[in-house]
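User: quick one
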Amino acid sequence: MIVYLKGIAATGPGFEDWNALSKHLTSDVGLDPDFVPHPQGDILSSVERRRASVTVKLAVDVAQAALQQSGMKSEDLALVFASSNGDTNTIHQICEALATPERFVSPTRFHNSVHNAPAGYWSIATSSMQPSSSICAWDDSFAAGLVEAATQCVTENLPVLLAVFDTPFPEPLYEKTPGHQPFGVALVLDLIPDGSLAKMRIEVDGDVNLATTPMANLQLEVIRCDSSASRSLPLLAALATPGANEVVLGYSGDLRLRIAVENLHR
Amino acid sequence: MDAQLDTYIGRVDGLEDESLVTRFKEFDSRNNRLAMLGLVADNFEAAAAAARTRYGAHRIAVIVGTSTSGILETEQAYRQRNAQGKLPGNFNYRTTHENYSVADFVRRYLALQGPALTISTACSSSAKVFASASRLIANGLCDAAVVGGVDSLCMTTLYGFSSLEIVSTTPCRPADAQRSGISIGEAAGFALLEKSKDQDDSVFLLGYGESSDAYHMSSPHPEGAGAKLAMSRALQRSGLEPAQIDYINLHGTATRANDSAEDLAVSGLFGSDTPCSSTKGWTGHTLGAAGITEAVIACLCLREGLLPASLNTTMVDPDFSMNVLLENRSLPVRRVLSNSFGFGGNNASIILGYQKL
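Assistant: Done. Structure below.
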């Protein structure tokens, strides 16, 4: 499959946005050791912003940043949201409430608990009636999301906005599922080459001996292994580095995703 | 599970006594037990094994829809926290609850190694698996796909829907003037999708359509705009006219809002002739498994030449224009459209049928 990248956004431990991350990836500029994402959910109405959780805000913030860069209209884009655990705080709060004698689950908390809550909030905020999907595949959620988005782009001839995000569980679930520091990444994929940032050829490879691409920098390698969203880092590095680059991401089981990137920076 | 609610619950009998075969002990949860029952039903396991021989394990995808997966296990673990607030040592979140655990269990159980994912878009989840699988096959990422849906009873949905005041105290009555909400059920179902072959007796996925309401997180668009768009796109993809659909299996949850909005969408697109019914009076609303449950029912309609009545419906809402069946009807059925709509305004329609007239 060949798709073209029209917009890109990322935020995570040590970097506020794609600009900061790409500078770090291509120069000596370090990560900001004190920075952690504080999602705002600016695209949401004030009512929805009060109802939405941190996880939802992280997802819509990064999606909005990629959309803005693409210059495209939200109502033209199909949507794929991927996350390994979804809304971690809401899951915790519901399980905690259900362990009390009252067992009261508030309506807002209940609708926030669905895995597709960010997609719902996004479509309401942008008035987009385009298809949206919300998926997960544990550590391979980014790779599976990229395939879901690319196949939709190619088959339905629609530009697709992919947003992948993870947030940590609070205790006691954190002990069972550690890591997942807030990390969000979003890509706008299109079939039309005009004005694109990069060309991406995506192929599935069944060669079990094909090694997945690590991050050369140890600090980034630790971040890469932390969540499903952060496993996008090798692709983000390939997109930040001028020229042609190839990366291999882990996919389902022992399958690999081989992605050939050709940067076409304007 | 001991939900203390005044409602009718569609429970799968004997699930508590099922045990997963030893090699899958770490996946043992109500949800994966239900998945296993679905996999062994109707010789599905054997059909998947035959496909594995035909195509190779790496060439068969696994795509499962679920809304809450095995969250019941985490709910129970939270009740068993110790004095320090820690969860029980033997509780395994990743293999028993996490949304991908059910797809992971299915791929391991069937020894398949192709692309695998869970789609979790609430009650449209296991209708969307058909669209996703169709795209993977069309783009050569696999030759076949096991698609399905598994959603099991849990307190999150029972108490959550109760809190929204859309749970019926009696078995649900879709499209009825007196309808008062949903009856929650549980189900697992699977289908094997392969590339088109010229086999007259095979059921084909003729089309699918997806859309978003862009209206409200837990209420449908009042005019059914998103539902209508999903059905239109399914018709467009199949190249069929509305009059060529023999039967519509409604989403038909029996809430006031869903059934009214769906009536406007269906009658707006199909008029008042096309026979339609909700089968949730028979099965309950199986949430993330509703799409596959009703896809299986659509296949039965095609094979048996039977259109099912809307069970428990005595008087159709006088405001409705769509043609709701109050009695079973026997006649040749060639094409069925099935609707599945979910929270977040997530809509999917699929068309199943025979390719040749």
